[in-house]
């Protein structure tokens, strides 16, 4: 082998070694469920074949989703109704909810056994009079799924009649209103959102959230955070609503680098502040 050939070989070996080892620029992210080190899906072996840590985490997530779904399915309907009322009461009475002026919220689906949001949405859409100091007027955006590639939009609605059932029998806004005008997309709005009310399958007190596997919310929240940063807006609060059985022990929920943490959790027992921003608001 020529001198140049040997130098090229040594250079290639060094590059493969750098890809295979964690560095300060690519810190390892632990998942306490299995002790795996997760950097990204680009982790490589010396042979150039992608390693499998993320595959293992996805399997853990799938198993956890299956378990939580079964528990939700067997949840006593009377208890579910009781917790629905309690959770919505906590939200409606919370200062951080009363003071917000623009928010994104999900339309609950009974078939998915999501925490009910009907009373919260009804209160928002009542357009409380300005002379009622218990609550300020609010602008509401709700989700519309556009495709199966984790693409979701948040569109403004002013009444429940703005919603129609999609192919999965989940209510969502039509792209245009009754006059044929396009609904305002929150990503194109001139003012920032204060609050996101989020669904999910399981949560913990450290801010971990696991959804239903489509990646719609993690993708959307990441994009909105980038938008807020670019426009120098304050990051909105990410608040999840959860039945008591969905609040798991810390470390049980496996995570990947793409998972977006929540700021606070609302259950029937009250609000659990998680992030510094939530704590500073005395939630």
In short:
With 283 residues, the chain is α/β, with parallel strands linked by helices.
Question: Would you write up a description of this structure?
Answer:
This protein has 283 residues and is of the alpha/beta class. Helices cover 31% and strands 19% of the residues. It has seven helices and 14 strands. It is globular. Mean pLDDT is 83; it is low at 2-51.
Characteristics:
about 280 residues, alpha/beta, seven-stranded mixed sheet, three-stranded mixed sheet, 7 helices, 14 strands, about 30% helix, globular
Largest sheet: 7 strands, mixed
| First-last Cα distance | 69 Å
Order of helices and strands: HEEHHHEHEEEEEEEHEEEEH
Instruction: State the helical fraction.
Output: 25-40%
Number of strands: 14
Tell me the Rg in angstroms: 22 Å
Please state how the strands of the largest beta sheet are arranged side by side.
5-4-3-8-11-13-14
Overall structural class, as computed from helix and strand content, comes to alpha/beta
Count, helices: 7
Q: Could you give the topology of this structure?
A:
Layout: H1 3-20, E1 29-31, E2 36-38, H2 53-73, H3 77-93, H4 95-98, E3 102-105, H5 118-125, E4 139-145, E5 152-157, E6 163-165, E7 171-173, E8 195-198, E9 202-204, E10 209-210, H6 216-230, E11 237-241, E12 247-248, E13 264-267, E14 270-273, H7 276-280
Parallel strand pairs: 3-4, 3-8, 8-11, 9-12, 11-13
Antiparallel strand pairs: 1-2, 4-5, 6-7, 9-10, 13-14
